[in-house]
Amino acid sequence: MEFKDRLRSLRKEKKYTQVKLGEMLNYGYTAIANYESGRNQPSIPDLIKIAKIFNVSMDYLLGINDIRLPYTDENDSPEFHEFKKLYSSLSPQGVEELLLFMRWLISKEKASTAVTYQSPDDEESNVLRVAEPDNLYSSKKRKS
To answer: Where is 87: in which H helix or E strand?
Structure first.
């Protein structure tokens, strides 16, 4: 995708008019229309402003690749580095189990109610029970 197409797509995604984007960049809508038609190209400082407005990388904006934000702050956190180190030491089966656990954890965080178990011998409940605090499972087990 070329810059002109990417700009139009991003502008429409944000529901900005050419006039609105022009105002954000301190020039008229005709400049935006010319960019989107391919008649003109913005200067490097204006490209930087446009990338910031749409929160995308310059490579994405220019159509070099389809990765909107290849560099994010969380990739520099100590937790993320530790996660990558631990992840890389897992076997293929361990990776599958981790993905299963992560999906479960996300669904648990989204749910505002406690997880209920069908039976203590159910294999899925055993996987979930490993991740739950002992006191939560114990109180449910007593109720059963």
So the answer is: helix 78-88
